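User: Before I run my own analysis I want an independent prediction to cross-check against. Here's the chain; please return only the structure tokens and, at the end, one sentence I can use as a sanity check.
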Amino acid sequence: MRGGRRDGRTAAMRRIWGMMYRHIALYRRSWPRLLELTYWPILQLCVWGFTASFIASRANGGAVLAAGSLLIGGVLLWEVALRSQMGVAVSFLEEIWSRNLGHVFVSPLRPWELIAALLGMSLLRMLTGVLPAIGLAWLLYAFNLFAIGPVVVLLFANLIIMGWWVALGVVSLILRHGAGAEALAWSVLFGFTPFSAVYYPVSVLPAAMRPVALALPSSHVFEGMRAAMLHGEIAWTQLGWAAGLNAAWTVAAALLFARQFRGARQRGALLNIGE
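Assistant: Structure tokens:
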């Protein structure tokens, strides 16, 4: 019995790796795909980094310099969430565009194994895109994101998980509405930016918007980032809220995906989705 379980886990890991390797092979043969991974994070860093440098050059004082650092830190961390979300959604769209989704589920691959492969690809895509931007921030602006200490790992983890559950929601909408929902893969998380307190504290928002902001893990992550960068403190309360909200939203997104996947399979949409 124990040997059978071990063999089952081994087979599942091989199927997950097989799906991941299919997507990795696409990047090995296409330098434009690799360029696209780093293009947007570096472009965002340059635009906001030079903006922060300009503001700092026109004013004196530590507060202005701190504001510039917070701006760059916010840009880099928000890219973690964006790249994580798009890593899952775009990898799923690759299966649709290649008319491969029906073939995938004719194989022994199970839905959770596909999701595990998409999450693995998301992590690889995020690291490929964000790490060069972090290095460039150090070279151009002498800003080291890792200087805030080990808490950066918790900030990264919460934003990655947020990107994943948002992506599951997007994938669910694509399964339900087909090609009409594909644009959400690039746009939906950007809609959360005003509520996520990326560049300013939640207290700046109008009172009517604050409940929405506080319901998102990202707002707590960025409040924690500011506490670490300005005061050298780990805001455990904010990180706890971020982790709890991520857990709740992940369960909701997983249930939505399971429901929409089951419906798509019953309708036969897995064979003609995207057409």
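Sanity check: Residues 62-97 form the longest helix (36 residues).
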